[in-house]
Amino acid sequence: MLDDIGDVEGKRVLVRVDLNIPMQDGAVSDDTRLRATLPTVTELADKGAIVLLLAHFGRPKGARRPDMSLALVTRPYEHVLGRPVRFIDDCCGDGAKEAVATLAPGDVAILENTRFHAGEEKNDPALAAAMAELGDFYVNDAFSAAHRAHASTEGIAHLLPAYAGRAMAAELKALEAALGNPERPVAAVVGGAKVSTKLDVLGHLVGKVDHLIIGGGMANTFLAARGVDIGKSLAERDLAASAEAILGAADNAGCTVHLPYDVVVAKEFAANPPSLRTINVHEVAPDEMILDIGPAAVEALADVLKTCPTLVWNGPLGAFETPPFDAATVALARTAAALTQEGSLISVAGGGDTVAALNQAGVAADFTFVSTAGGAFLEWMEGKPLPGVEALKTD
Ligand code: ADP
Ligand code: MG
User: Fold this and answer.
1) How many CB atoms lie within 10 A of CB 248?
2) Does residue 395 surpass a pLDDT of 70?
3) pLDDT grade, residue 394 (50/70/90)?
4) Which one of 33, 151, 159, 352 is at 20 to 30 Å from 333 when CA atoms are compared?
5) What are the angstrom distances between the C-alpha of 48 and each of 104, 105, 395?
6) Residue 139: strand pairing partners
7) How far apart are CA 116 and CA 173, in angstroms?
8) How close is the Cα of 209 to the center of ligand 1, in Å?
């Protein structure tokens, strides 16, 4: 924890952050990740630390690529931070050391893309040691990179006194409240296109939660495995055995699995198609596909949420990008948001499309915590230890 770092006046603090922002024509298209660094960076700078930001940008694969230089992010970052930011054109070595030596207490600098060194993604101890030479302390504030054991996320944490930054700590606290040591009963919503991408998530959750709500294309795979005729719905019919195994494991663990009993179908996948029908799940015609779960199912699921103090959500319940197949996702998200605002639910959500769907529903800010960490969030949902987090716990 950053609270334990002590006096940092005049000390060099290496802070691993996520500056891997989307850019279009030289402009930042979404500065969420830049803003997420502000609590930690301003706190350290205000305490008189020399703040040295370590980050990757794109996938340069060990080469120096001008189009992936963090020099491109320095001005936008300066703008978000509201104070001057220096750029140092390497994350280790003599040149970087000399540049760091010219900085004063309270200064902030961005060091060049860690992935310009091949050793970064290999977690090369020599690179970790070379980066560590630039600092007196190490702070990791990049949860989104914590599922990778890289030199700047894992190796270096063993070489300097290491702490979790404010954004990292907030993310870990929310995740702990949702699945680590949650108030029961716990509900999980898992949706999305495919079972195959989330087999490990489902396998982990059945042993952790009391209600597993399955929606999206992956519900079709479960329905098909159960012998329900799902017409030409998107499904992975070859995964019937995996789906059955998950249902069996849920049964053994006392986890109730909720599959939809009414669904929204159409003959073609288009916005507001003329063939749209809301039907019982057993009435799907051979030329129809399931594109959302139905209103009766949503109502039943809302009642489940009302009995649960904890919810974790990954994956939309339907093909939410195309109206009206966002209806179930939006409705259940609004219920979860309202329960959260009333103080009866801790709601934690994550996943690229899930975040987009919650924004579409206008409720992202009403959830307890919405993770934008992508891969790291999913690996956490799979119950995997995250190397960047584990490294902060030891020594
Ligand atoms: P996340 O990014 O939140 O982890 P996924 O990538 O697993 O979520 O899944 C999101 C995708 O699943 C969306 O593009 C959505 O359109 C699709 N999807 C959900 N339900 C269905 C369905 N019934 N048929 C086809 N696609 C679906
Ligand atoms: Mg996705």
Assistant:
1) 11
2) no
3) low
4) 33
5) 8, 5, 25
6) 15, 163
7) 32
8) 22
Contact criterion met (CB below 8 Å) for 255 and 206: yes
Owner of token pair 């979860």:
336
The answer for residues whose C-beta is within 8 angstroms of residue 208's C-beta and 6 or more apart is 179, 186, 188, 383
What is the DSSP secondary-structure string of 83-115?
S--EEES-SSSHHHHHHHHT--TT-EEEEP-GG
* Index of the ligand 1 atom closest to the CA of residue 350: 3
The pick from 288, 317, 353, 378 for probing ligand 1's pocket by mutation, whose C-beta has the most ligand atoms within 8 angstroms, reads 353
Atom of ligand 1 nearest to the CA of 198: 7
Ligand 1 pocket residue status of 321, Cβ below 6 Å: yes
If pLDDT is split at 50, 70 and 90, which confidence band does 1 have? confident
pLDDT, one tens digit per residue, over 105-154 is 999 999 999 999 999 999 999 999 999 999 999 999 999 999 999 999 99
Closest ligand relative to 356 C-alpha: 1
- Return the ligand number nearest the Cα of 216: 1
Confidence (pLDDT) at 196: 92
Q: How many angstroms separate the CA atoms of 122 and 118, rounded?
A: 7
Q: Is 375 a catalytic residue?
A: yes
pLDDT at 26: 83
Ligand 2 centroid, distance to 88 Cα (angstroms): 35
Q: How confident is the model over 201-244, as pLDDT tens digits? A: 999 999 999 999 999 999 999 999 999 999 999 999 999 999 99
pLDDT band at 101 (very low <50, low <70, confident <90, very high): very high
Among 267, 320, 380, residue to substitute to test ligand 1 (most atoms within 8 Å of Cβ): 320
User: 216 CB under 6 A from ligand 1?
Assistant: yes
Mean pLDDT value across the chain: 96
Mean pLDDT of 266-280: 98
Of ligand 1's atoms, which has the minimum distance to the CA of residue 292?
A: 23
User: Cα(316) to centroid of ligand 2, in Å?
Assistant: 9
Whether 316 and 357 have beta carbons less than 8 Å apart is answered as yes
Q: Is 352 in the pocket of ligand 1 (CB under 6 A)?
A: yes
Helix (H) or strand (E) holding 274: none
CA 9 – CA 364 distance, rounded (Å): 37
